[in-house]
Amino acid sequence: MEAQVVYIVLAAIFGLFMAWGIGANDVANAMATSVGSKALTIRQAILVAAVFEFLGAVLAGGAVTDTVRKGIVDTEQLAGSPELLIYGMLAALLAAGTWLLVASRNGWPVSTTHSIVGAIVGFAAVGIGVDAVQWGGVAKIVMSWVASPLTAGFIAFFIYLTVQKLILSHEDPLDRAKRYVPVYMFLAAFTITLVTILKGLKHVGLTISLRDSYILAIGIAVGIAVVGAIVIRRIQPDPKAEKDQHFITVERVFGVLMVITACGMAFAHGSNDVANAIGPLAAVISTAQGGVIAAKSSVPPWVLLLGGAGIVVGLATYGRHVIATVGRKITQLTPSRGFAAELAAATTIVVASGTGIPISTTHTLVGAVLGVGFARGIEAIDLSVVGRIFLSWVVTIPAGAILAIIFFSLFKVILP
Amino acid sequence: MTRGVANIFGASPVQPLEQHIDIACRCAKKLRTFFPAVIAGDWEAASAARDKIDELEEQADELKKHIRLNLPRSLFMPVPREDLLELLLVQDGIANRARDVARIVLARRMQIPEALAADFLEFVDRNVDAAKKARKSVRELDELFTVGFRGAEVDLVTGLIEELDAIETDTDNRQIALSAALHEIESTLNPVDAVFLYKVIDLIWEIAESADKVGRRLELLLSH
Known about the structure:
The structure holds two protein chains of two kinds. Chain A is an all-alpha fold. Chain A has 15 helices and one strand.
């Protein structure tokens, strides 16, 4: 029994460490645009991020947690030696956490998802055997890494095109924005809520019928759109500022919309990335508690809570600084462009999370920003940096794998 | 990892381009202080204005270099990089011509014949007007990028360019009239002075011409 406690405590520490790292670094992706465009203050952004990351992790993170937990390693092969799975998952967590720390210290754009998947595949293939990896599942995940930025890019392209056609290209963009922005609010809230209800809630033990799901999603979305419309109506043009920049008031209207998409983005991020940190932890806990590899058991809710809490602590301790830095850097992503990118990325990620596919939120967001760029919305994108970001997973997977193999061998020797 | 997403935004050339035309235009505008001083024979004031023009021209040059250095080929922009660089070049022409004019006039302590003075000052004024209109057009660049170069904003800029064209035509006519007037009295002038007066009139007119080229370049951006 003592060994089991050691495993669980270690896993919880490593899992917290990784969730903290995600909160400290990655969350800025979701919130920085809102802060940069002054739609939210840093304090408000941290609050919003904390709430929605947490909700995303708890309400919609279950499926991805399951995939990371048992969709990559063929647990049946390990039925005789459950401790191997425990060592491996501990090693994977530590490897991914370490790699993320090294990478963010050096400013390399790497993905949490790629690190953890690389680490799990690494320990399983080398530490146990090539057959221990569910290659079909891995292939699906890797394919989604190509598909998710493309999908987000396409969606963002079309969203921004409608913004140009419906609002910006008209003589009275402010009136048009006030009329159409609530529609975007409805769409954003509806998609994310619906996917969460349909795909996420069953992991929390709630089942809602299809009809009720739609009614609930529409109800929530209408509520959000109405509140948004009321806030928007109170925005008055500032003629002096408009002389320099005709769209300044229009952008303020989009700023309100962007608060909603930023919530969506934080939620989506919580549902996918937190699950990455929590999946291995859940695997260790269920194995250690049962003494056998439990394929059916569900993720204990306190584990998801732990992941959510780790993110919030990361945000509170370190995220403030990162959000401010990134916010200053992405002033080109004005609310009208930023919301298009965020809405596209959030939708793609939440759908992937619902399906249980761990994708890279960073890459998805980059794809979405490129989509806005293709709609001629962004002044200048540095393609060499974009290339480096997409290439980074080529490095991250072996790096995660090698670190995981080292830690795995180490744990086999030193752990009871 | 986060910083990754932030770093994909290259340095946008749009704000710097707007700043650049602003400096170039201020540079040309200084001729409005310079020439009255010259005509009044106040060389101290004229040389102060020339110093200011030189300073602004240098600022414009430095900004031009900065923009070029920050516009690598790897940038993905809604308009071709070459077109923006060309726009920058013609914008810079406005400042350069203003500098050339002030330099020659001051170095030679040139006298503007009294018979021409009033028309001459108006001619300078109109050329500065052209530069100001060019600045107003370029200031719409960030809005054009926001709307993806379509819709009402394009009409607005097209309108500005038409106004710029009209001013340029006006300076054109004035240049011809002024040269003709100079021709009438050239026999009363020192021949070398007369030659240089023709040259200065031409150089001043090149300010409007540069401004007009800015309009042409903007039109090219619109047609993409």
